[in-house]
Write a structure and sequence with these properties.
Helix 2 runs antiparallel to helix 3 and helix 2 packs across helix 10. The termini are close together. This protein has a two-stranded antiparallel sheet with strand order 1-2. The chain has one domain. By secondary structure, it is mainly α. Helix content is 70%, strand content 1%.
């Protein structure tokens, strides 16, 4: 889908279906967030797939709606609200990489990943160059950037191929890029939330006063997480395994969905 195109009834239906799917998935038990009360939801696995299927703009919209509606349900946290952009970012990056349009193509994916990765070096952990683990921390994120640059529009060509291996490779590249963009976005939000802990807690209390009585903080207190650099360095091995595992699962599910929807004629990447 290009910018400026009107939504068709099929688009509205697909956005609604995938947004509802994200809401359901968001109710599943997730992985606890380090230093906070929230969790890494399994929607992380599905947002890149949504981008591939719907494209960056419809996919980003579906990801936002699904995550936002899921967040509105009880037992959510204010930190979860701050993480809402992570899903749309993943969908936009993966969806753009799978397309070849004026406003949706590999250049958009590369630009977003490059900007996010560059912002890491403006954060306190990213500036601790004396710590080797922090210096190499975004290596998977940069790997995603390099892969986008190397394959470029060929990813879109893969999805138009009748060769299963090419479609599989295209799905893996899109899922990996989306998941790493999601992760870096989450990292930046987490770091910012620690720095703005006092101000954000006041905002959380104001939102809770509006009627969100169940809303917990979920914010990471500077006293709880300790030195941010040490935290990110310590969990780097876990992060690597986690993101690669997410990529494998997302690609496995995504390949099946792409083949099924292609045969049905519901999508045209």
């Amino acid at each position: 889908m290009e910018l400026g195109l009107k939504l068709r009834s099929k688009d509205v239906a697909l956005v609604s279906v995938f947004a509802a799917l994200l809401v359901i998935i968001s109710r599943l038990p997730g992985i606890p967030i380090i230093g906070g009360e929230g969790k890494i939801e399994f929607t992380v696995i599905f947002t890149p797939i949504i981008g591939i299927v719907l494209g960056p703009w419809l996919g980003g919209l579906a990801a936002f709606i699904g995550n936002f509606v899921g967040w509105l349900m009880p037992k959510t946290t204010f930190m979860g609200f701050l993480y809402l952009p992570t899903g749309p970012v993943a969908a936009i990056v993966s969806g753009a990489l799978a397309r070849k349009g004026k406003f949706a193509n590999w250049k958009l994916s590369a630009a977003l990943i490059g900007i996010l990765n560059g912002l890491w070096y403006l954060t306190p952990p990213g500036q601790e160059i004396q710590e080797p683990l922090l210096l190499i921390y975004p290596f998977l994120h940069w790997a995603a950037f390099v892969l986008v640059i190397l394959f470029r529009e060929r990813v879109n060509v893969f999805f138009h191929s009748e060769i299963k291996q090419k479609i599989t490779l295209g799905t893996i590249l899109c899922c990996f890029s989306g998941i790493m963009a999601n992760h870096m976005t989450g990292n930046l939000i987490f770091i910012a939330s620690v720095g703005w802990f006092t101000s954000l807690k006041a905002i959380k209390n104001a939102v809770k006063a509006l009627g969100f009585w169940w809303l917990k903080s979920g914010l990471a207190s500077p006293d709880d997480v300790g030195p941010l650099g040490a935290l990110f360095a310590f969990y780097l091995p876990i992060t690597v395994v986690e993101r690669l595992l997410f990529t494998v699962i997302a690609a496995y599910i995504g390949i099946g969905i792409v083949f099924a929807l292609r045969r049905s004629g519901l999508i045209n990447i």
